[in-house]
Amino acid sequence: MTQPLSEHHIHLLNQFSDCLVEHTQVKQIFEDFDQLRASRLFHSDPQCMLLTGDTGVGKSHLINHYQKRVASSQTASRTGKPILVSRIASGKGIDHTFAQILSDLELFGSHRRTRQRGVQRDLRKDTVKCLINADVELLIINEFQEVIEFKSQQERQLIANALKYLCEAAKLPIVLVGMPWAEKIADEPQWSSRLIRRRQLSYFDITTDEAQKYFRRYLKGLANHMPLEIKPAIEQAEFAIPLFAASKGENRILKHLLTETLRHALLHNSSTLEREHFIAAHDSLFGTSQPNPFREPPDKVKFSRVAKASYYNPNALSQDDLIVSRQYTEAKRTLQEWIAIT
Q1: Smallest Cα–Cα separation from 181: which of 52, 37, 31?
Q2: Which pLDDT belongs to residue 342?
Q3: What is the Cβ-side half-sphere exposure of residue 212, based on CA atoms within 13 angstroms?
Q4: What residues are paired with 321 via a beta bridge?
Q5: What is the chain's Cα-based Rg?
Q6: CB-CB contact of 65 with 33 (8 Å)
Q7: Which residues have C-beta within 8 Å of that of residue 86, sequence separation ≥ 6?
Q8: Which pLDDT tens digit goes with each residue over 50-94?
Q9: Cα separation of 220 and 226, whole Å?
Q10: What H or E segment, with its residue span, contains residue 47?
Q11: What is the pTM of this model?
């Protein structure tokens, strides 16, 4: 008979859900962040970076972990905010984004602003001053695609100019993070040469030998974070192939599925993950909306993969068609069949 989850179990599930496996893509991006911070000490013109990736690849999770990692390594005497993560104020223009940056600085107690009645404040100058006073080493602006969406060429140019001013006046490297169409900022002359580093987080794949090895190493890393007596061998084909089939290579869905599987294991006081835990987790998350790949032997599992990433269509005839979601292949082939055609 299963027992309800204890507070301890909930704590363990939260820990696993929040874990970060520093696979090769993540390590490269963290190294970029470190080098951007170091380069501001000897470059008069700060280097900047563009980080893009489709929904669910783990962009926000990655940058939040980096922020926490740097904060935990601070000395007790340091009172500044070395890494500031802010975001685009959706649909409200660049000045609201500057106001958001100021608000984020306040939330961390790095600067207190006082309002003066009847005085029109210059948000941009205030932002620069506060960033300098807070000793910010790297500004990461998340959801950057929202400053590109529904904007004309002239509007994008104004946005590029405003961010260029912030970067130069505060002598601060900036990382712009967003969906794939955030790359349009690189078309602006003010940023085409400023974005020295450009990285993309991708979905996982298993249709080549190298991609399979990469995915399995990632799964093994996740297994090592599981609070179980016996670390499950989820990198083996009997688990790895159905895990890919269920997630289609999307990290967010993969983590949700594994967290749910871990929940079932903890409910049954199991020492490791068993096949029935995966079956139950898939059923509880997806119901009958899609076949349960854990009910099939791995060589019979058919799966789809990303055929085309999400994109922004500026020529759409209606606003509803401006953003086109990612597209997948049909789930008609097994792993052996996929390998045979690639």
Answers
A1: 52
A2: 62
A3: 13
A4: none
A5: 23
A6: no
A7: 97, 100, 101, 104, 139, 140, 141, 142
A8: 999 999 999 999 999 999 999 888 765 566 689 999 987 766 667
A9: 10
A10: none
A11: 0.88
